[in-house]
Specification:
The protein is of the alpha+beta class and 237 residues long. The chain has 2 domains: 91 residues, Alpha-Beta Plaits (2-Layer Sandwich), CATH 3.30.70.1820; 102 residues, Endonuclease/exonuclease/phosphatase (Deoxyribonuclease I, Chain A), CATH 3.60.10.10. The protein contains 5 helices and 9 strands; from the N terminus they run αβαββαβββαβαββ. The strands form 3 sheets. It has a 4-stranded antiparallel sheet with strand order 2-3-1-4. The termini are far apart.
């Protein structure tokens, strides 16, 4: 009976080990796929708030070139890979679908984006919003808001990291996202519930690496006192 219980316990341990290995492999594959998608999206822009043509099922390309003409950007046909509305057309054209446009290179895309503010001075375009399609972290819940300030664009990120999500992968994703934002000289703030106890940095190299990564990007934790005290203190946010 004792021998049977020992074998059963051993099988349980091996099952948990296999499960952990499988979860790690799946997370790695998801991480790699997400990075590839992030790279592909870097040449895209999104356009919101443009009313749809009732007679045209997809007027995305016409809208893009009209706005480009108004901004005096004038991309050539071969500089745009694809333009279209996202999703199915809604009844009565309520809540117009956003438009996604993919440029062949980042040169014209960046030229287009640098003139976004001028839309506010064009009659009938004050409600139109144009943004990039790349500020997104996968593998955790997140939202990135773009605010057009008087002098520069401000990016605000709201991030939730699940307690079991790999810290190294999260740190790398956050680093890549912030690095991409910083390339455009935007001001940025990252808020949220990260679920990493900063007080454990001296005992956990992953946490210390996470802090070092943030500091290298010019980000410094604002909360420096325990946000939860139970059996021991925690700094999570």
């Amino acid at each position: 009976m004792v021998e049977y219980e020992n074998k059963l316990n051993q099988l349980e341990v091996e099952k948990e080990q296999l499960r952990d290995e499988m979860v790690q492999k799946i997370n790695l594959l998801v991480f790699q796929l997400d990075r590839q998608e992030q790279y592909i999206r870097r040449e895209n822009i999104l356009i919101y708030g443009v009313e749809e043509n009732k007679e045209d099922n997809d007027d995305g390309e016409k809208v893009l070139f009209k706005i480009a003409d108004e901004l005096e950007v004038n991309p050539e046909d071969n500089e745009i890979q694809r333009v279209h509305r996202l999703g199915q057309k809604r009844r009565n054209n309520e809540n117009p679908r956003q438009i996604i446009a993919r440029f062949v290179s980042s040169t014209k895309r960046n030229e287009f984006l640098t003139k976004i503010r001028e839309l506010q001075n064009i009659e009938g375009r004050q409600h139109v919003f144009v943004c990039e399609d790349q500020f997104k972290m996968h593998g955790c819940e997140n939202m990135w808001l773009e605010i057009l300030g008087k002098r520069q664009k401000i990016i605000i990120g709201i991030v939730y990291r699940h307690p079991k999500y790999n810290i190294d992968e999260f740190s790398q994703l956050l680093s890549e996202t912030i690095t991409e934002i910083a390339k455009n000289n935007y001001a940025y703030y990252v808020l949220g519930d990260i679920n990493i106890n900063l007080l454990n940095a001296t005992n956990d190299s992953r946490i210390q690496q996470y802090i070092d990564t943030l500091c290298s990007l010019g980000c410094h934790p604002i909360i420096n006192k325990p946000t939860r005290v139970m059996h021991r203190p925690y700094i999570y946010n």
